[in-house]
Amino acid sequence: MTFKLGTRKSLLAIAQSSWVAREVERLNPGVRVELVGIETKGDVILDKPLSQIEGKEFFTAELDHALLKGEVDFTVHSMKDLALERPSPLVLAAVPKRELQHDVILFHESVIDRLMQNLPIRIGTSSPRRLTLIPGFLKSALPRFSPNQEPTLQFVEIRGNVNTRLSRVHEPEGSGRKLDGVVLAFAGLERLTLDEAGSKELRRLLENTRKLVLPLKPCPSAPAQGALAIESRSDTPRVLQILKPLHHEATLQGVKAEREILHEWGGGCHQKLGASALPSGVLFVQGQKPNGEWVHETRGAPTPEATDFVKIEASDVFDFKAEPLDQEARSTIQSASFVFIAHSRAHEFLSDQTLVHSESKKRIWVSGTKSWFKLSAKGVWVEGSLDGQGFEALDPFRGKNLLQIPSEGLVFLSHRESPETKGAKLLGTYSHEFRSVPEKFMKSESIYWSSGLPFHALWSTLQPEIFAKKKHACGPGRTAQVVREKLASIGLSPTVLSME
Predict the structure, then answer these.
(1) Which residue of 73, 85, 273, 433 is most buried, as measured by CB atoms within 10 A?
(2) Per annotation, catalytic residue among 129, 144, 217, 272
């Protein structure tokens, strides 16, 4: 039995619809899916940003018409393109498992020379959300080569398909079309790598580029970015049946939480808001309301700043001692293509700062934006961060064709007491020397543990009864594991909060 799938004609749309077609066929033996290309208004109007055009449903109306007329059996959309209210009798038949929702900026590698010379960095995007959120972040995130010298950023309105936009970073110097970087959705690029034609074109366009994956807390994505929506008609039970196995309920619940923000603020491509849900249930919301009010929210879990918890950090308990690296360890760093820095301190204690200098092609990831900004201030190019969610949060990025994070040879810079990490070579650049029990710990009734090490040190020093009289909170990942394990012995459990 053959079914017709309606899709836009762009390289990306064909790639993601082809993936859906293959999945439908795989999950329903004997079923065949035929793609039907349909041109939409958004594909035709390329001379101005959609935010400047009256109306909505620029990428969906023509597909809706074909589906309602019975010309196709189901359609595939990027879910962020769907209006909050959909025409009857169209129904959401399935939402497949989501791709990463991050934005990524692809820069030509010549951006380093331009930053060194303090020349303007021209970046292409027409999204009001990106234009609202990204400039402030990049001023601290791009490497600086002179003290207190912020990069000069120029944002250029740009439309077109992914390959059309990305090709502009390869224009010759002096061309009016030349851009230093282009902001794109990670999900779209990753899906192109799964398509034969898309992958071939993307490999060409990624040559001589540097990536910068935007963290979700300061730069949340468009609501539902990275998710696909498969729609059909309510009166086609056989179609609904073959699509049901593709559905991923956790993805649907996440995008529902994000799209609820659109209900609050009013939906549409004119919005200057971002909303990104994490698997943990935390929802980052950033942006500007129509009345000009700025919103910075973390929903779903409180942050230490929004509670009465007193924060205990490693610096409250320990003195830090540099641990010189031997020649073997130095050689390991020098030869590594990918380095994860757990804390900016791990880099500060390196005797040779040029080991991870921006001029090298070494790829650097960090735990959170605090570490990112300290490194960028020293001229280090950071590719991405984990939004303070712990090293385990790197796992979703592994295996992505776009990133090519190595399964072996990854170097993890941390402190000497850090536990070994699977798939990474741990190198401790500093160690901790216990100093004293902080007075604020003894006086406070509610404690937030920023890491497991100070907790473990005080647990080993003090009587459990002291801990039993307090409320405890901590960040996710390994910190939560350490704190949970010890507190469980006295019948307590910590509240896990957002770290950043």
Answers:
(1) 273
(2) 129
